[in-house]
C-alpha cells in the first residue's frame, strides 16, 4: 500500500509539472507574448480611464463644495479687430448656388 501511494504522488507531481511546462512554453511563444502585451495595454487603458474619471468626479465635488459652477463649452470667437467679411464661397472660389437652385434654372 505504501508503494501505491508514492506511485500516485509521483503521477500527480508529473502531471502538475507537465501542465506547468506547457503553460510556460505557451507564454514564450509569439502568440503568447502578443496576448500578454495586449492584456497589459488593456490594463493600462482601463487604469488611465479610471484615473480620469476619478479626477473628474473629484473636480465636480470640489466645485460643488466651493460653490463654483462648471463652465459651459465655449466656442472660439473672432478677434475684436477682425472685420474681414469673406464668405466660405469666396475663400474656396465656389459658387453659392445650391443644387435646388440649379434645378430651377
Q: How would you characterize the overall build of this protein?
A:
The protein has a domain at 27-69. The chain has helices at 2-27, 30-66, 88-92, 99-104. The mean pLDDT is 81. It is mostly helical.
In short:
The protein has helices at residues 2-27, 30-66, 88-92, 99-104. It has four helices and no strands.
Topology:
Layout: H1 2-27, H2 30-66, H3 88-92, H4 99-104
Strand tally is 0
Globally, the shape reads: elongated
> Beta-strand percentage?
under 5%
Give a quick account of the main beta sheet: strands, pairing sense, barrel closure.
Answer: none
String of helices and strands:
HHHH
Overall residue-averaged pLDDT value: 81
Approximate helicity band: over 70%
What is the CA-CA span between the terminal residues?
A: 106 Å
Radius of gyration: 34 Å
Amino acid at each position: 500500500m505504501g508503494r501505491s501511494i508514492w506511485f500516485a504522488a509521483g503521477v500527480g507531481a508529473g502531471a502538475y509539472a507537465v501542465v506547468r511546462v506547457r503553460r510556460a512554453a505557451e507564454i514564450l511563444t509569439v502568440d503568447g507574448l502578443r496576448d500578454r502585451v495586449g492584456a497589459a495595454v488593456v490594463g493600462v487603458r482601463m487604469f488611465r480611464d479610471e484615473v480620469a474619471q476619478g479626477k473628474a468626479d473629484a473636480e465636480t465635488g470640489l466645485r460643488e463644495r466651493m460653490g463654483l459652477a462648471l463652465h459651459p463649452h465655449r466656442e472660439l470667437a473672432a478677434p475684436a479687430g477682425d472685420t474681414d467679411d469673406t464668405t466660405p464661397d469666396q475663400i474656396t472660389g465656389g459658387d453659392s448656388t445650391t443644387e435646388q437652385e440649379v434645378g430651377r434654372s
